[in-house]
Predict the structure.
Amino acid sequence: MVTFAVANTERSRCKVVPRAQQPATALEEFSNESCGDIVQATVLEPVVASTHGFVHGVLEAYCHHHDLVLRPDDLWLAIMTQFGLFVNANANDLRQSLVAHDGSKELVVEAIGTLYSVDFGALSTQMVTHMEAHLVDPSLKDWILPSFSTTTDDDVIVGSVVLMATMKSFFSYKYVLRCGIPNVTLLGTTRDWEDVRRRLERLGSFGPRLARWATMLRRIVDQCVAAAQGAHDTDFWNSICTKIPGGSGPTYITGWISAFCVFDRDGQWQADKKPARSSDTSHDYPYVDTEDIPPGYLTVDATIDDNGVLHKAFLFAGHMAYRIGDDEASIAPVLSWAIALKNGPPPPTKTASRRK
């Protein structure tokens, strides 16, 4: 880093007021392209929105006696943005020197997740890696992407999207999101999972509904046994849940996870429900309104006699949480219990809303 004097003038205070906003929302393309929700974006401190933050920022500093701070990334990507405009205006003339294919080639990247959970920045950098194989000179990618000592992850993402936009006459881009679990770890032994299956047999003795429930559960546990034996079924583990939007009505889930929701919070059978608009009867597992997912724990009153002093108590036990792994990329359900004295403030007034 180096700082040097340029003009013998006194520094002045900036009069332009930065605002906490996503600058993309102020651009004409945002409205012209009917943009609405911003799914992801660079996390910014308050800034001054501009159609050319580099040029306008330098001009503001120059004309109003402000110090200027520049990074090589700023300079280079300002150049590459101009280069992109040039390529898009001369795509036909430049095609043979840039790509080896005719027409537009679709590039696809896939990720496990949903619209609001995947990392679109990382996916964009993957996209340009896929592009590399279709370039006449693969070094074009590394030439455009910044890699200076000041370069941040966001700078690389910006460079990647600049490259995608530069080459949009030759490529189309698709992000494919899959709900699923990258890896599953089943703890315990095969014998443990076989023991779970044996225990299911008793459920059927409690009536026809529980016999039906046991049939659902048996399919799930059979897959756990097979996986423990080294024969996992990827399709099964990728079919944990299907979410069915309800528009202005309820949203439902189905898939094998719903087999753990056949009784509502009041113990009433809810496995025969289905969306009003659905005529599909082929599902092996129930449809469950997401607001009717029952608690994963049970509670019970108890009395404690503490050397002659009686206390009313309340016990909780079950799945009341899940754990995030040390790698910050894995989840495990957590079984826990608690006992509490009933000596707190009176309960709040009940409302008509259902607990989620």
Summary: The chain has four domains: 1-69, 71-178, 190-292, 297-341. The mean pLDDT is 86.
